[in-house]
Structure formats: structure tokens, C-alpha cells
């Protein structure tokens, strides 16, 4: 059922892509539906002159396999298309379940619009269900983890440190029983932390699958 919803969300979101646009290309299984559909549009010549900024090596590979041009340093991205692990009624997100949070956050921050595609299971009144991913430098990493735990979390290295991000770093999954507005800043203040998977106040629209249809939730005025 959730696969159908992911696909429905991606199929609705892709209607906003026009020839000549610069696109942020997210990471994950929902974005995969978007990338496959975009690839078909590009291959058939219905959409031309697209430039994509991929948020992971995996996404770059997929995009390039369809002949979509990708770059990693560009101004004025028109729309960033990405998924999320959890979203709240204000469009705040938890991301990084696939370990791509650093590049995803940079791309979202540098995009005029951020369109988030999700299935209905990702909704939460208050962000707390999905363990918060935090990317840390592989140096004094056990100490970095302890400092995050001092903020009230139970933390584990993803796959016992076997998971290495595209940036060569570890991901720590943090179970907090609270989220407050300052949590992102408090974690980011810890030396060794590269990025936190809380995406606050960055979403333009949410495309939420509902069975085989899609609900569009406007978060910010365009
Ligand atoms: O690091 C990965 C990303 O934040 C994904 O966008 C997120 O994990 C959602 O992925 P999926 O669409 O597979 O649920």
C-alpha cells in the first residue's frame, strides 16, 4: 500500500517539472519513483534541458543512467524534489534514513521551492517517531555520541559504524523522547557534528500519497 502512495505522490509532484529547470534530486525509495518518471520524460524528449543536483551518489547514478545532466555546484535551483522519514503539520521534517541528510539539506536550503513526496505513514503531529539521524566526523566519534546523549537521547552508530555516508562520515541514530525548536542548534553546537536530520521551516509543499491518489499540502506561499 505504501508503495502505491509513494508512486502517487511522485506522479503528482512531477507535473511541476518544466523544460529548462534546475532541479534538486533527492534520495530514497519515494524519490526513486520520481527519478524513473523524470528519466522517461527526458528519454522521450518531452522534457529537455534539465539540470539536476543529486543529493547522493546513488541518485547521481540513477539520473545519469537516464541521460539527465547532473552538477554539484549551481545557483537558483528551481525545485528540490525529495522524500522524508517523518513530517509534521507545519511541514517540518526528519530526514536521513538513507544517510543522505547533509547533501539533502544543502540542496533544500539552496532551492527556491522544496517539494516533499511522502506516503501517509510518515505523518506525525510532533516529530519524534523516527530516530533522528546525525552525521558526525569519524574522529573522537564515541565522545561526540556521548555529548548527544547528554541532551537526552539514546544513540547508536548506524550498522555499528559500518554505514559510511557519501561524505565519508558516520551516522548516529538518536532516540529522543522530546523535540523542541532548539534541539537542532544544540546538537549542531557539538564539535564533530556535521549535520542534523531536522529540516525546519524549509518545505514549500508536501505531496502525500493517499491510496492511489495524492493530497497536496501547501506549507509556504510560492
Ligand atoms: O537519507 C535519505 C533521505 O532523507 C530520504 O529522503 C528519506 O529517508 C525517505 O526515504 P524513503 O522515500 O525511502 O522513505
Describe this protein's structure:
The protein is of the alpha/beta class. It folds into two domains: 2-124 and 200-215, 3-Layer(aba) Sandwich (Rossmann fold), CATH 3.40.50.1360; 132-194, ACT domain (Alpha-Beta Plaits, 2-Layer Sandwich), CATH 3.30.70. It contains six helices and 14 strands. The strands form three sheets. It has a seven-stranded mixed beta sheet. It has a four-stranded antiparallel beta sheet with strand order 9-10-8-11. Helix 1 (2-13) packs across helix 2 (29-43) and helix 2 (29-43) packs parallel to helix 3. It is globular, with a radius of gyration of 17 Å. It starts with a helix and ends with a strand.
CATH architecture of the largest domain: 3-Layer(aba) Sandwich
Mean pLDDT metric: 96
The best one-word shape is globular
- Taken together, the total number of domains comes to 2
Residue fraction in strands: 25-35%
Q: Given this structure, which CATH class of the largest domain is correct?
A: Alpha Beta
Distance between the termini: 31 Å
CATH topology tier name of the largest domain: Rossmann fold
- Judged by helices, strands and strand pairing, the structural class is alpha/beta
Question: Which spans of ≥5 residues are poorly predicted at pLDDT below 50?
Answer: none
- The strand order across the widest sheet is 3-2-1-4-7-13-14
Function: Catalyzes the reversible conversion of ribose-5-phosphate to ribulose 5-phosphate.
InterPro entries: NagB/RpiA_transferase-like, Ribose5P_isomerase_typA_subgr, Ribose5P_isomerase_type_A
Organism: Acidiplasma aeolicum
Pfam families: Rib_5-P_isom_A
Amino acid at each position: 500500500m505504501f508503495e502505491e502512495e509513494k508512486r502517487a505522490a511522485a506522479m503528482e509532484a512531477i507535473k511541476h517539472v518544466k523544460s529548462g529547470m534546475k532541479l534538486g534530486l533527492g534520495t530514497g525509495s519515494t524519490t526513486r519513483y520520481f527519478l524513473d518518471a523524470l528519466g522517461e520524460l527526458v528519454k522521450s524528449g518531452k522534457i529537455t534541458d534539465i539540470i539536476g543536483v543529486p543529493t547522493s551518489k546513488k541518485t547521481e547514478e540513477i539520473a545519469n543512467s537516464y541521460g539527465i545532466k547532473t552538477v554539484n555546484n549551481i545557483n537558483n535551483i528551481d525545485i528540490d524534489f525529495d522524500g522524508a522519514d517523518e513530517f509534521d503539520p507545519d511541514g517540518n521534517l526528519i530526514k536521513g534514513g538513507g544517510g543522505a541528510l547533509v547533501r539533502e539539506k544543502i540542496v533544500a536550503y539552496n532551492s527556491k521551492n522544496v517539494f516533499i513526496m511522502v506516503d501517509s505513514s510518515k505523518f506525525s503531529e510532533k516529530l519524534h517517531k523516527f530516530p533522528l539521524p546525525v552525521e558526525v566526523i569519524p574522529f573522537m566519534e564515541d565522545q561526540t555520541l556521548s555529548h548527544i546523549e547528554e541532551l537526552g537521547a539514546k544513540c547508536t552508530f548506524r550498522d555499528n559504524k559500518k554505514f559510511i555516508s557519501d561524505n565519508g562520515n558516520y551516522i548516529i541514530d538518536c532516540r529522543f523522547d522530546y523535540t523542541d525548536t532548539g534541539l537542532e542548534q544544540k546538537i549542531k553546537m557539538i564539535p564533530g557534528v556535521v549535520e542534523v536530520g531536522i529540516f525546519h521551516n524549509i518545505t514549500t509543499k508536501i505531496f502525500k500519497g493517499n491510496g492511489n491518489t495524492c493530497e497536496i499540502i501547501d506549507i509556504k506561499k510560492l
